[in-house]
Design a protein that fits this description.
With about 140 residues, this protein is mostly helical. The protein has one domain. It is about 55% helix and about 5% strand. The protein is built from seven helices and two strands; from the N terminus they run αααααββαα. The protein has a two-stranded antiparallel ribbon with strand order 1-2. Helix 1 packs across helix 3, helix 1 packs across helix 4 and helix 2 crosses helix 5. The protein is elongated, with a radius of gyration of 18 Å.
């Protein structure tokens, strides 16, 4: 499990990508950083620490001596843009992983699934985009088979 400083950096990163807006909770408030950490660590153990280290390194370019989590929203956006603007394929993969897993956690069942009771309350994001949730299928499509 990553240390607290790494987790704080990842929370700040998901908050940068999907912040709270107009009273709606953002990715950090909904615990999406847990999804990002879990998904990345599942496929590339240790990669979360690398991501946090890179975010902190780029943060120093925006504000000398500051860690990513200490930056303002505007400063954090500059960091993410700078990383995304790098020509390195490896850096592109790092930024892509952060974006994909942040959006995936925010718009999937991650924010509505209660792991203890194993129940799903449809996440607010689903209603906002018009998604009615998982379907058990449409029997009329199977009748002709």
């Amino acid at each position: 499990m990553p240390d607290e400083a790494t987790l704080a950096t990842i929370r700040a990163a998901v908050d940068t990508i999907l912040p709270s807006i107009e009273g709606r909770p953002g990715a950090a408030e909904l615990g999406v950083s847990g999804h990002v950490v879990q998904a990345i660590e599942l496929y590339l153990p240790g990669f979360v620490e690398l991501l946090a280290t890179l975010l902190d390194a780029f943060a120093s370019d925006v504000r000398s001596g500051a860690r990513f989590a200490e930056l303002t929203q505007d400063e954090r956006e500059k960091v993410v843009r700078a990383m995304a603007g790098e020509e390195s394929a490896d850096m592109q993969d790092i930024v892509d992983a952060l974006l994909v897993f942040t959006y995936g956690g925010f718009y999937s069942e991650w924010t509505g699934y209660d792991r203890q009771s194993r129940t799903l309350d449809p996440p607010r994001a689903w209603a906002e985009v018009g998604y009615r949730g998982p379907s058990l299928g449409y029997p009329e499509y199977r009748e002709g088979i």
